[in-house]
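Let us practice reading a record.
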Amino acid sequence: MASASDKARFYLEQSVPELQELIRKKLFTNEEVRSIAKKRSAFEHKLNARGSTASDYARYAEYEMNLDSLRRKRSRRLGVKATSYTGQRRIFLLLDRATRKFHGDTDLWLQYLTFARQQKANKKVTQIITTMLRLHPTSPELWAYSAAYAMEERGDVTEARSHMQRGLRFCGQSKSLWSEYLKLEMIHIAKILARRHILGLDSNSSERHQASTPEVTDADVIPLSSVPMEKQTGSVNNIMNSRGDKSAESKIASTPALNGAIPIAICDSAIKKFPSDATFGAQLFGIVAGFSQLQCTRRILQHIVGTLLTTAPTSPATLDCFISEPVIGVSTTSPEFPEALITVLDRFDSTIRRLGSMDDAQDSTRKCASVSRHMISWIMPYLAIPELDPDIRSVLRSMVSTAGNYCLSDMSVEGGNIKAMTIALLEGLDTHGFKELVQSGLVSALEAWPDEPELLALQASGLKQPDSLQ
């Protein structure tokens, strides 16, 4: 059996022609080549000895990547033509050795994939993904990575869906994989609608095109051949007819692929998988809310809220989604915003009343505080908008005061990370000049945590004037 030194010498001898060429083409000096050989020898002896680790391979691969990058830069600067030996093959062989020996290390696989994608070695990437998923079928991160590659690099949504669905069969309890699947489908819808808009296939762009097209008079017309159109190529006529067919456009726009049927099915399956976890449902709600410009977003959000109200009607996460849903995607300058804001305020009031009627007083106070805290965090970004209507600003400030009284009245019922949340809330209120509310909140907070440095610093720093008075 070959010793570690023999194995190291075998790999080092393979790099001798490469080093000789580097000297011959004057890309590296003799001293630099000796330093490279010495460094490689140290790495190879360490890898082939007992006790080598995956990090040793990772460091060796990183060294070779940096060396190859330096070689390419010097080749461009000195005007040297491509060398016969490139670092790509050597790095691929090194990472292949690493993944064969430590096939359970996902970081090595991801480093292998990242390098192959940088080198645009698409066939190699496909081979790596196939092998990686065969060895790690229960790793949600690798399934999400492979789906993202199929979607982003290859533009193949069918393959991306296949990876996600296969991954969910193996990792059905992975919330992150469900979230990534939902995000993938939302991105796909956004791309389709953006492409239709660019091509002028949606109704809005068609109306704008018709409005911007000047009327054509007879003097501007160039007479064409008198040959009947039926005898000419019919494909052009068919295309023009299909583009002008409004019913066809509306039929395409109402297809399940564009009206959110697939994301709704994903949300239903995910929430059904975790029926008692309303926080996960709120996470899915947040992902969809990030695509607020899509026409189908409203329908998906309403469906998620309806499902959560059925599975967990009194959960603070459910109520947060229920309250904030009407204004998602509505601009503060649009005529619909005041009406949507009234709906939000009505939902908040009704929610607080419903929670206040619960039999368990402590649970009622805890949930009211949580909902109120979310309400304040939702309002704060609106108060930071300089051009916000003064009447709307006044209503929002009033709601912050009302919600603040709920979430700052009792610091003992939340537990967990309540201290950090309370400090962040008080600092936010201080930023927007809620002087009286912060003062009353500091009293309760200092009773709960009298020696907290951040609370003492906030008390000593003085409170800001309201932003409307600054």
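A brief commentary: The CA atoms of residues 260 and 296 lie 5 Å apart.
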